[in-house]
Predict the structure.
Amino acid sequence: MPQERTVSRTKVVPIPVIGRHNINAYLLLGRRPVIVDAGTPGSGRRIYEQVAAHGVDPTDVSLIVITHGHIDHFGSAAELHRLTGAPVAGHVADLGPYRTGRAREPYLPTGLMGRLMARHKNLHVKVQPFEPDVLVTGETDLEDFGIAARIMPTPGHTAGSISVLTDRGDLVAGDLIANSLFGLVRGRPANPPFHDDPLHNLASLRKMLALNPIALHVGHGTPLEPERVRRWADREHRRLSRLEAAGRLPARAESSTA
């Protein structure tokens, strides 16, 4: 009789890329390790070394999941792939940025922080492109990669944004939501500086909250409490509804139908 394959419960470990919490990648630990996001250009070696510092052989990494096509999340994907040998997963709707090495522009700010950051030259650089080895088109089980988790499409921030939901209920959420001021104000939910489609992103956030996660691990800041995020999402819905009624809500045409 064949033995059942067991996958140990997944642990989420933050990997700071810039500052203590300003830009995060994540190490998911199960039967085999998985990395989520690859940080800014030139940070592949730093992520590699932090993985090793947690007692994990980086060459054992089974997969690198890129949550979306912004420079601070896929900037070192090609480098990290070379260093670890692990395949890279990304959503088909963000293939353009991955294949060209450039984020889709213009960035659409969510507020003052975004308007200021959109002028920063580092957001407009060209990085080494890559071709995803695992092309995500829908919900994707990661058991074959050694973790009890699944990739969940969460479009809106970009058309191809994805999150990872573990068996324990940890949601590694990319830029679905952030801590305030690019992670500087811990525990306070806020929009990241940019969204391609704020209404679609909010719908994705509410869909994930309906799955009752125990924590939201974000690209910018410390983990967020789901109940606090729910209250924020209700306020954000009212704010966006007012902007939409006034015709003041920008969104990319391709995002609204992704």
Notes: Residues 1-5 have pLDDT under 50 and may be disordered. The two ends are 45 Å apart (CA to CA). The longest helix spans residues 226-245.
